[in-house]
Amino acid sequence: MIARLLKHWMPRTFYGRSILILLVPVTVIMAVVTVVFIQRLYEGVTEQMTVAVAYEIKLILGRIDVDSPDADSAFDGALEVADPLGIRISSGAAENVTRRDWYDLSGKTVIETLDREIEQLLGVDLVGLHGFARLSVNTELGPVELIVSRRRLNARNPHQFLVLIGFTALLMSAIALLYMRNQIRPIRRLAFAAEAFGKGRVVPYEPRGAAELRLAGKAFLDMRSRIERQIEQRTLMLSGVSHDLRTPLTRMKLGLSLMDDSSETEAMRRDVQDMEGMLEAFLSFAEGDALEEPEQIDPLDFVRKLTNRIARSEPVILGTLEGDGRAMLRPAALQRALENLIVNA
After folding, report:
1. Which end of the chain is more exposed for a tag (fewer CB within 10 A), N or C?
2. What confidence tens digit (pLDDT) does each residue in 31-59 have?
3. What's the pLDDT tens digit per position in 105-121?
4. What CATH number labels 26-155?
5. Which residues contact residue 285 at a Cβ distance below 8 angstroms, ignoring those fewer than 6 apart?
6. How far apart (Å, rounded) are the C-alpha atoms in residues 21 and 230?
């Protein structure tokens, strides 16, 4: 069942299958590299960077003086630690929301890691401030808000590696496809030459491409040469036989001309004439088949002219002919075949 489905969806051409053989491994490698890269960068590295920031936040929260008589002085120690670390801290009302963009893959890891490392965490907002993460943390003095740069929570420009490797894979695949196309072109030329020879036409062909393709092309040329020699020898032999048969036919005609006229001799004369006509037709066919080259003609126009010429001596009814275009044909051989078909019908 699976084999039938695969066979149904497989490309029919050699070039299509070559593309499939080339692109499937590249696509699989790209998918594996992408998955491993995302797991390593978005999960591993992002988690490590977020844990380091979480330790800094806990250090800052630990410097808050809960015994201070006023709130401003209570945060003095925390500010001394937060400012060098690039973390902004402020007291008062904070939005206890947790949100991120749907395409923010690293944001999910950041939120999960901060929620795990900071027990007093109320919310993480990764959308409100572009390029920053807003954290709401509960303390003994009430909720506080901390703002941290996203650059400290996850790697910068993680897509560059994927874009670079993707562009490189596409570029190399395109170059490989062009090279593969050049390798397939000699196969198409060989197929065209073989098809043309099968239809009785000889087209110029020169073996090119890889060593195996050159070997196949040379074998085709050798085969074509042997077949052409065989056809030529057969035609010459049959032509020779036909010429040799003319001598006894001539003797028979001479002998019949010396005999008295009767119904038997008249029948023999007709038989000799029929045999002579068959020999002439065969010689014409052999010479035309050996010497005549195919040429581009309009088949419908050719048939109309032939029927008009035959209609001068014999009644011919031509049916409806439709179509247009030209075809590679041997005019003399086609004319001889149609004449025999029409006259003997």
Report:
1. N
2. 888 777 776 767 788 888 999 999 999 98
3. 788 889 999 999 998 89
4. 3.30.450.300
5. 333, 336
6. 42
Cα–Cα distance measured from residue 51 to residue 74, given in angstroms and rounded to the nearest whole number: 26
Question: Does the fold of domain 222-291 match that of domain 26-155?
Answer: no
CATH 3.90.180.10 holds for 222-291? no
d(CA 66, CA 199): 101
Q: Is the pLDDT of residue 148 over 90?
A: yes
CA distance 345 to 224: 37
Whether 212 contacts 187, CB under 8 Å: no
The average pLDDT across 288-305 equals 71
- The CA distance from 325 to 319, in Å, is 19
Amino acid letter for position 173: S
Token pair belonging to 124: 């993480």
DSSP character at residue 99: B
